[in-house]
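Progress note, sequence design subtask.
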């Protein structure tokens, strides 16, 4: 019989860390450099649920504690895995339920990933929030006569936070507030992945862009580029990032021309407005 234990990442022993690394490699197969970075940089800020049987870790889940603009507790379910010899025993759901139980009676939200949307629907999370997705391409831009040129500005965390704060003040959505350590983690991860965290200028204003490359497509998860200008900037964006297609996640909207896309939240409790979770969710 196994037991579940909630631990802060910075309290893990060297022996426990080695066991977790073995499970991670079995489940995800990431490079040693990325794995070392995760346990050196991410782990001190993460809450970890350990599934332990006979003194051995057989399963685990990792969550980053965050909060929304209204002060609601939420968590980024960053990863989870079960050791190969222990799969098929339905261990992952109890880990997530155990972890979310630490929120007490407060409403909470878990940032989800698209391929788990059916799994979330099968749990006690009654609300599934999605975002909409706008596709830009070189073909789209050919029909547009007015184009801009984008240039990269010097990146600093203070500038990113300044631009993000100014942008989010003007949207009527509840959104995730990120502490400084989370921005630093995203920037650190960027060095190990094909991720984007840029500040761009069109000669009139500065904008931030956060996203990642996948299979030759740039996915932008959050940007302060105005939605009404994105199509006119499609050629400039494709040219700047050297891709033929860009997919941009936008806040929820009644605009029927934009299809609903990836899950962004599985929620318990009620929300005063639409929730919008930026940053990479896959």
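Output:
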């Amino acid at each position: 019989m196994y037991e579940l234990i909630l631990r802060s990442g910075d309290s893990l022993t060297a022996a426990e860390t080695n066991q977790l690394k073995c499970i991670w490699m079995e489940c995800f197969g990431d490079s040693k450099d990325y794995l070392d970075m995760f346990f050196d940089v991410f782990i001190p800020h993460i809450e970890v649920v350990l599934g332990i049987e006979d003194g051995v870790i057989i399963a685990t889940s990792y969550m980053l504690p965050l909060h929304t603009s209204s002060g609601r507790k939420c968590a980024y379910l960053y990863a989870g895995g079960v050791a190969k010899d222990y799969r098929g025993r339905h261990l992952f759901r109890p880990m997530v339920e155990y972890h979310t139980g630490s929120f007490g009676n407060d409403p909470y939200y878990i940032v989800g990933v698209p391929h788990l949307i059916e799994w979330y629907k099968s749990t006690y999370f009654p609300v599934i929030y999605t975002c909409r997705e706008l596709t830009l391409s070189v073909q789209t831009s050919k029909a547009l006569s007015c184009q801009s040129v984008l240039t990269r500005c010097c990146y600093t965390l203070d500038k990113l936070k300044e631009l993000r704060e100014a942008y989010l003040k003007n949207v009527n959505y509840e959104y995730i507030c990120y502490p400084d350590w989370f921005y630093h983690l995203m920037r650190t991860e960027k060095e190990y992945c094909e991720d984007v965290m840029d500040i761009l200028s069109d000669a009139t204003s500065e904008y931030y862009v956060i996203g990642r490359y996948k299979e030759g497509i740039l996915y932008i998860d959050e940007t302060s580029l105005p939605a009404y200008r994105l199509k006119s900037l499609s050629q400039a964006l494709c040219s700047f990032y050297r891709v033929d297609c860009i997919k941009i996640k936008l806040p929820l909207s009644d605009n029927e021309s934009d299809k609903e896309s990836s899950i962004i939240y599985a929620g318990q409790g009620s929300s005063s407005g639409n929730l919008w979770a930026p940053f990479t969710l896959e």
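The chain has a mean pLDDT of 81. Work on this subtask will continue into the next period as scheduled.
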